[in-house]
Design a protein that fits this description.
Blueprint lengths: L4 H11 L5 H20 L9 H13 L4 H20 L11
């Protein structure tokens, strides 16, 4: 897939959801960390599973992020995967419990 779904999602947050610039920047930063995590492990972003999300959150904690920052990153991931689900780019949401 050649689409940059992260960039599309960030545009969606800014334009359609009308989130503040700081929130959009924070979500974008968090989701770039998710993409980097996936890339480093050879996982396609759109094929991530629940276990991958859990490992990512543990990785963020091990890098010294505060639990509050990890929660924000997980919220960003939840929003992102719900967006992908709504656009039918994925069949299930790996952040769903």
């Amino acid at each position: 897939m050649n689409r940059d779904v992260l960039a599309e999602f960030v545009d969606y947050l800014r334009v359609e959801k009308g989130l503040s610039p700081n929130t959009v920047l924070a979500y974008g930063r968090d989701l770039r960390k998710l993409r980097e995590f996936a890339d480093n492990r050879g996982i396609e972003l759109l094929k991530m599973e629940q276990g991958d999300i859990h490992k990512w959150s543990q990785d963020l904690l091990s890098r010294g992020l505060s639990p509050r920052s990890v929660d924000r990153a997980l919220n960003a991931a939840r929003s992102f995967f719900r967006y992908l689900l709504g656009d039918r780019l994925i069949l299930s949401d790996p952040t769903e419990q």
